[in-house]
Amino acid sequence: MKAGFVNIFGKPNAGKSTLLNAIIGEKMAIVSHKVQTTRHRIKAILNEKDVQIIFSDTPGIIEPKYKLHEKMMQAVKGSLEDADLALLMVDAGENPEESNSIFEKLNLKVPAVVVINKADTVKNANTLSEIKKYFEEKKYCKQTILISALKKNGIDELIKLILTYLPESAPFFEGDDLSDLPTKFFVSELIREKIFELFQEELPYHSTVLIREFKEKNTLIKISADIIVQRETQKGIIIGDKGSMIKKLGTLARIDIEEFLGSKVFLELFVKVRSKWRDNETFLKEYGY
After folding, report:
1. CATH architecture type of domain 183-286
2. Which of 63, 201, 260, 276 has the most CB atoms lying inside 10 A of its own CB?
3. pLDDT for residue 158
4. Per-residue DSSP letters for the chain?
């Protein structure tokens, strides 16, 4: 059978998480119109007849400004070590030179396919041809492909292309698990996604989520989670007037969590202030970074 590791790299807004979800057919990575949503390396396993592909969605490549950013970029570097193939994602509507400067710094040791995402948003065929030609002239690029991850256009063709680069191998993971990450991780990410949806400006980037309790009972799953912020004013914003915002956040998160787990959920949310947690090694370790 064909089996191997395929790692996805790109700028924060290239659509890496959307692609991962489209390939797996499940919500493996949270998605937001805001950049830098992904903070962890997320492995997702595609199991089909005689095929196992382990995809890794990595944080968008940025210049670190604090310790959390450094942890995120360490996840990117770590994913370079086990890849059989790299997917280099590009937003078709952006300057290709910006992505190229990032890709060249990766110093890839494996073949790379440049995935030009959001191709459906570019009406000029010549523009797409120019983008393809630009990357095809780069040493790291073996092939290019046009897709729309959001509309799932070109996904089947991308899978076929990926298989041409993967070795014959025994499967790396047994069973039908979609990831090697624990369920609690995905629950915390679904809550964090709602913070990105509901709150503006810097607040989502100043917050994280820690699952304190995850108990499966006869009729439902009880989940208790802390939303961590950096300032008291941010705590007040998340709670809202008479608790209106945290109630809305909890309702939206619970709906998605119930769909993800296939079970009724009782969700409790608490907001805690941890000053400068993004630059604190102890806090970062506690919160799973």
Report:
1. 2-Layer Sandwich (3.30)
2. 260
3. 97
4. -EEEEEEEEE-TTS-HHHHHHHHHTS--S---SSS----S-EEEEEEETTEEEEEEE-PPP----SHHHHHHHHHHHHHTSS-SEEEEEEETTS-HHHHHHHHHHT--SS-EEEEEE-GGG---HHHHHHHHHHHHTSTTEEEEEE-BTTTTBTHHHHHHHHHTTSPB---SS-SS-S-SS-HHHHHHHHHHHHHHHH--TTGGGG-EEEEEEEEE-SS-EEEEEEEEESSHHHHHHHH-GGGHHHHHHHHHHHHHHHHHHTS-EEEEEEEEE-TTGGG-HHHHHHTT-
Q: Which residues contact 192 (CB under 8 A, 6 or more apart)?
A: 30, 204, 207, 208, 209
Token pair 């047994």 in the structure block, residue: 174
- Residue 166's DSSP bridge partners are none
Query: For the chain, which residues make up each domain, given as ranges?
Result: 2-163, 183-286
Pairing of strands 51-57, 221-229: unpaired
- Asked if the domains 2-163 and 183-286 are classified in one and the same CATH topology, the answer is no
CATH topology of domain 2-163: Rossmann fold (3.40.50)
Residue 175: band (very low, low, confident or very high) from pLDDT cuts 50, 70, 90: confident
Most confident option among 14-23, 52-61, 255-264? 255-264
pLDDT computed for residue 35 by the predictor? 55
When pLDDT is cut at 50, 70 and 90, the band that residue 144 belongs to is: very high
